[in-house]
Amino acid sequence: MKGDPELLVLFAKEIEKWLPTLVVIPSMLDAHPDHSALSVVLSAVLHSFGNAPIQTWEYLVHEPQIAITRQSKTVRLTLRLSSEEVYCKLKAILCHKTQVALSRGRFTRFSKVEEAYCRHDPTGVTTHDGSLLAVRACEGVLHLRISIDPHDRLGSEILLAFRSSASEMHGWRIPLSLWSGFAPILDATSGWRLHDATVRWGASGLTVGIPLFAMRNFDAVFIKLSGWTLFFDRSGWWRVSVTSGRASGLTNRPKPAGLMTLS
Predict the structure, then answer these.
(1) Residues 55, 21: contact at Cβ < 8 Å?
(2) Within this chain, do residues 134 and 52 fall inside the same structural domain, yes or no?
(3) What's the 3-state SS for 100-146?
(4) Which residues make Cβ contacts (< 8 Å) with residue 227, sequence separation at least 6?
(5) Residue 168 belongs to domain spanning
(6) Residue 51: which H helix or E strand, with range?
(7) How far is residue 125's CA from residue 118's CA, in Å, rounded to a whole number?
(8) Same structural domain, 97 and 56
(9) Half-sphere exposure (CA, 13 Å, Cβ side) for 45?
(10) Number of domains in the chain
(11) What are the pLDDT digits (tens) for 67-109?
């Protein structure tokens, strides 16, 4: 959220230099914050290449607390490794000396015979019972309806990363209060208060209205429900594609009652 904006430019230059036909990235839903953050950046960069012939596959290492349900149309691939490949992977894992010293068994279990991959489709993944249930944009306001356990209110916040160009992203933080009312929208880099979001807690979860007056031109927004954790997140990121220019609509497949499913 506070990363150097030059990061997108560096990744884009590397892709232009190599002209890859295949890119393999972490899953945006990975519970490890470094994995999911890297996926957001790479997804934003790869999106800027439009119709370039680049196949993008993703892998999930750390399952989030919120169970993942992929759409039936999601393309999956399983690679079966040879014994030599498994051994090489184990040796690579053992190079992470500090991690192995603390959790050798857990880390070495990743040297499996089979590795699973899915075609990268950040708008094609949902969560069981949904962490983020629905989202819609109307008259310059982004409306989120979120399912959250009342016990998880304390310390929760909404993170938003806006992709406004091939080389630029902006991050917002919205710390959630324990009661309905207003919550500050903070610039993730400067910490400045940009505006207020409206927050309404209900029996089934949370509804948030986020004015987008300060973020006019963007074509995608990445959203994360965050909370205090020691190492791993409760959930990863979700991407919502929007029409170019004003955020007047979402490109996700429409559902009844004018709501768009957030995946």
Answers:
(1) yes
(2) yes
(3) HHHHHHHHHCCCCCEEEEEECCCCCEEECCCCEEEEEEECCEEEEEE
(4) 152, 155, 156, 157, 233, 234
(5) 1-72+121-263
(6) none
(7) 11
(8) no
(9) 21
(10) 2
(11) 555 655 678 899 999 999 999 999 999 999 998 998 899 889 9
